[in-house]
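Per your request, structure below.
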């Protein structure tokens, strides 16, 4: 566990640094071009690159020592950040002023690639947990990693804007380069004793290529694992509704300054959720915990926009963020228990790619659906007569109705999957049978 704690410290530095660059790049692109297209395009490119790279990164983690995979990713990140700084220094500032600028997008892709390469840590750390953490403490270790992700998010939410405002993009990159060098130096000094996993009987011998077919077969060989991945993907699809429309809904009630401050406060929910898991674990049956969490999340989603209340919204978002680490920790704990060790990285990468594919789809479709269906329904349509007297009317109430609809759909799907045979089979296999008192 001492080694794991040290690795968590490095992961915190790496994830914070990469998020810091990603957030700052998004702000800088908008300020340079004054175009919303720049931010939406950056988000789309980032999500697609993340989705596509997952399986490849998982294969790298499986075929190399996890420490070496993380070191290699940080070295590549460092080189890309240095390249980005050189591009920024030698390119005239006015070359970045248009969303059609080629130098702008070369610069953006270089930095995005640097941040995405660092996501190998998101696969390597959970994979390494299966090798260096006792089984009865893996759920708590996964909770600690969730705390790291939440803490990194909270830090970068504030730091990226402040550094960009007072120092500019060059200072952002200088800080990122120094932090990445520090991460490489610290990780190199941490001894990680990981043995190559013995080949699991009945499994085909692993190959050096991506081997998508073998990874899919490994997932299929475990009853209930595919349904779990697709259930999480569906949750991400619905959860994407909130991330796509939440800013528009919140800014309809408060100023951008207040809204940004509120997000800085409610992001503590993700940190506290991870800390709770690290202290108390997930109980004897992680899958049962997952479905309980989902019932709470979707119920909260129905009610936190039932009225145009900032307090109601803040409490609801806080609870939502508090529960996100539980979803991540449950999936990681289940994978670590049932997936053959020699394929664990690829399965994590495969699940990461599938689950991340939901967010771009949601972002692409939900805006037009809200704009053309739900908003008219609550401004000039039948919704005004049917529920407007108590629910309220206007654009924001149309967005609120989207959230409520997503929550109801999430509850329905969770209830149906909870009663399925796949759930019962996987729940029996993943029960830890551990007294948590």
């Amino acid at each position: 566990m001492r080694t794991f704690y040290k690795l968590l410290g490095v992961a915190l530095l790496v994830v914070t640094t990469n998020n810091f660059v990603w957030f700052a790049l998004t702000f800088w692109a908008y300020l340079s071009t004054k175009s919303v297209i720049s931010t939406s395009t950056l988000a789309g490119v980032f999500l697609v690159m993340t989705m596509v790279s997952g399986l490849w990164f998982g294969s790298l983690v499986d075929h190399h020592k996890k420490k070496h995979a993380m070191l290699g990713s940080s070295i590549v990140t460092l080189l890309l950040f240095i390249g980005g700084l050189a591009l920024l220094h030698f390119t005239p500032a006015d070359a970045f002023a248009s969303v059609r600028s080629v130098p702008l997008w070369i610069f953006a892709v270089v930095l995005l690639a640097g941040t995405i390469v660092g996501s190998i840590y998101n696969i390597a750390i959970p994979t390494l947990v299966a090798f260096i953490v006792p089984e009865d403490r893996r759920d708590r270790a996964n909770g600690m990693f969730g705390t790291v992700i939440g803490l990194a998010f909270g830090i970068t939410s504030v730091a990226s804007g402040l550094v960009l405002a007072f120092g500019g993009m060059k200072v952002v990159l200088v800080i990122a380069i120094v932090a990445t060098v520090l991460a490489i130096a610290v990780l190199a000094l941490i001894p990680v004793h990981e043995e190559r996993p013995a080949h699991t009987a009945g499994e085909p011998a692993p190959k050096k290529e991506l081997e998508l077919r073998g990874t899919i077969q490994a997932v299929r060989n475990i009853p209930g694992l595919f349904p779990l991945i697709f259930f999480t993907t569906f949750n991400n699809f619905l959860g994407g509704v909130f991330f796509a429309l939440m800013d528009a809904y919140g800014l309809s009630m408060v100023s951008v300054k207040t809204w940004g401050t509120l997000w800085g406060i409610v992001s503590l929910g993700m940190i506290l959720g991870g800390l709770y898991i690290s202290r108390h674990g997930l109980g004897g049956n992680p899958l049962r915990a997952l479905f309980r969490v989902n019932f709470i999340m979707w119920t909260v989603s129905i009610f936190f926009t039932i009225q145009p209340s900032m307090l109601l919204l803040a409490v609801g978002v806080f609870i939502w963020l508090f529960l996100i680490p539980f979803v991540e920790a449950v999936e990681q704990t289940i994978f670590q228990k049932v997936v053959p060790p020699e394929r664990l990285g690829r399965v994590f990468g495969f699940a990461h790619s599938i689950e991340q594919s939901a967010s771009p789809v949601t972002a692409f479709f939900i805006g037009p659906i809200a704009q053309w269906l739900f908003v008219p329904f609550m401004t000039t349509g039948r919704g005004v007569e049917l529920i407007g007297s108590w629910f309220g009317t206007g654009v924001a109430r149309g967005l609120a109705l989207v959230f409520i609809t997503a929550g109801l759909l999430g509850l329905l799907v969770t209830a149906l999957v909870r009663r399925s045979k796949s759930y019962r089979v996987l729940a029996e296999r993943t029960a830890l049978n551990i007294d948590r008192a």
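The CA atoms of residues 18 and 115 lie 5 Å apart.

Regards,
D.
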